[in-house]
Amino acid sequence: MRRYIVMVMCIGVCILACPMQSCANGGKSAEATVPVADTLVPAAESAESVDTKKPEYRITVEALLKQARQQSSKTNFPLFFARQFLDVPYVAHTLEVNDEEELVINTSELDCTTLVETVTALTLCVYQKQFTFGAFQENLRHMRYRNGIIDRYPSRIHYFTDWIVENSKAGIVSEIQEPTPPFTAVQTVKVNYMSQHPRSYKALREHPEYIPEIAEMEQHISGSQFRYIPKSEVKNTVAMREVVHDGDIIAITCNKAGLDIAHLGFAVWLEDGLHLLNASQLHKKVVEEPMTLYQYLRKHPSHTGIRIIRIIQ
């Protein structure tokens, strides 16, 4: 059964030169604060409730797609869409707001995962030449749920390694794992955070019968191996610029027990090197990090490197 619920307040759509403004620009700069890791723990409870009745979501999505339709075919659409969300507030766990599992769409509050999913769904609409809210909705459903089927909480893809694998099978993304160098390290995935911490998840607290299904999913992806770029190699080199493209999805690997990926964002090359466009817990909004990704990774001891995922055109 397909279930949809759209939960958004309109963010306001501007041209690329005038990014959307947040109503809450809180958060100290990276220069003034010791960064706290934006650890990508599979979503737990929502930080706050969101209005489920407002219809502005459709206006927002369709306006973004209308803008995209007017762009040159040479436009880097992942970056084009990601930059439309600059300054939108960071709010964690916005998917965890319903008693029953439903498709949540929220463009007024984003975390690192929902930013990546929203931008990817919009980008796919352009590649498919389908500039409608319905196409966006279908793209989002297919990438967020196994085989695109919404059937209770376990049907959602909860770990990003699983997201990469399932969406690679679906022809939505492709993971880049060569050449060597710079892909000189191998991640052996071992995930069990959700099944080991069920009290951290509203759905698992209320439905302990889901825990064995979650554990089975964790076992399915554990043991798989992926090549990645160690953080010592994330430098401003010709080789890196050839391998990592503007608009690629960057998944930061980590050595935290039970987890595979610590944080997500989009690759942005500037003169001084590779930067991360991300929904930042530190800055409390979507930003292009002022520090390079190399500097960012060095400030987080648990971060080990980056995996590179490209949206297929």
Please explain how this structure is put together.
- There is one protein chain.
- This protein has 313 residues and is an alpha+beta fold.
- It is 30% helix and 18% strand.
- It is built from 10 helices and 10 strands.
- The chain has helices at residues 56-69, 77-84, 112-128, 133-144, 160-169, 193-196, 202-206, 211-221, 238-243, 293-298; strands at 4-6, 103-105, 173-176, 185-188, 225-230, 249-254, 261-270, 273-280, 285-288, 303-311.
- Strands 3, 4, 5, 6, 7, 8, 9 and 10 form an 8-stranded antiparallel β-sheet that branches. It has a two-stranded parallel ribbon with strand order 1-2.
- A hairpin with a 4-residue loop joins strand 8 and strand 9 (285-288).
- Helix 2 crosses helix 3 and helix 3 (112-128) packs across helix 4 (133-144).
- It starts with a strand and ends with a strand.
- Residues 1-37 and 45-54 have low confidence and may be disordered.
Sum this structure up briefly.
The protein is α+β, with helices and mostly antiparallel strands and 313 residues long. 30% of the residues lie in helices and 18% in strands.
